[in-house]
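FAQ: What does the model actually see?

It sees only this:
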Amino acid sequence: MISYARQTQEEQPQAAPPPVEEHIAPAPRVSVQAFCETVETAAAVQSAGEDRRLGKAHLKIQMGGMAAAIEAYRTAPTPNVIVLEADARTDILGGLDQLATVCDAGTRVIVIGRVNDVALYRELVRRGVSDYVLAPVGPIDVVRSICNLFSAPEAKAVGRIIAVVGAKGGVGASTIAHNVAWAIARDLAMDAVVADLDLAFGTAGLDYNQDPPQGIADAVFSPDRVDTAFMDRLLSKCTDHLSLLAAPATLDRVYDFGTDAFDAVFDTLRSTMPCIVLDVPHQWTGWTKRALIAADDILIVAAPDLANLRNTKNLFDLLKASRPNDRPPLYCLNQVGVPKRPEIAAAEFAKAIECQPVVSIPFEPQTFGSAANNGQMIAEISANHKSIEMFLQIAQRLTGRSESKKQRSSFLSPLIEKLRGK
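And it is asked to produce this:
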């Protein structure tokens, strides 16, 4: 009998599109071989292999279905995952029994079939098949099935990466990122970490009033040392739920990175933190592009002028093309209403981008300037400031959580507080 990991899934008459807020954790570095019967399924698997969540997986596609798989593994070792398509004429159970005689222990099998039968599904599970997916399948169905093999259901919320980037320099993207992370930690009660990726000029340390001796540079320049314990030592605690991976903000060295320089950092943070907010600097390099494309959700911060509109449109087009199975990026308008400055109206901005901004944050230099100079968040400077609710809206949209963890006060609260004091 093949030793497979079992994972139950309800039978559905046909593949359904993923919900908007669905979170699928990326697959690790595994080998996947698919044996397809139809060109439509082969095309879906090929498209799935180009999805960012299977970026580390090595995928190979062959035609011939079950029979081709049995023949191939008579003389070759089996991969981590085998995807088998079976048409209506295929004896699935008999083919699996033959495959078991040539398959290595530990290999996981996903079957794509056209028979919607509970008895068949139970028999497949009894034989150790990891997942049974009903055809026709789309790329996201293949991505979901493979990735779910390596992520425990109870850890589904772990590892959501949110990337925040400015459409143009000086639009306040870092300020928005830091305040949104604060809302995620305080109002949604999610453990979160802010990773300041602007190693030369990052402001996260200043905004949170932190000056840690170590930070993200120690991890980037020592990738061999990166593990959970090492990353824990680099994190600076800001609040009970919020930590900071600070940038050195020094110019004693240059920060020229390769495309995959931050991969080890992000992979380690994914395994331990429910939410990672990336403060991505406004520059276009291999690693910034990789960080944006690989993120689970993206927020673009733009000011209401022509250059920001052009850049936001370009970012939208590239990210939507590079992430066909993800929801489009979100964007917000910041610094709206600067006195005597001509601006593009939010409606015109939305018409060009073909979607509405999450929020439009007004230009208020007094409050935002005081917060920046004091090393505080807007919520600490002014508890009732209208932008606080906007940061919470952004946090809810990015995390998929609509509820706030704030305790509701009642008319008895003052009396209860007095009794506690006594």
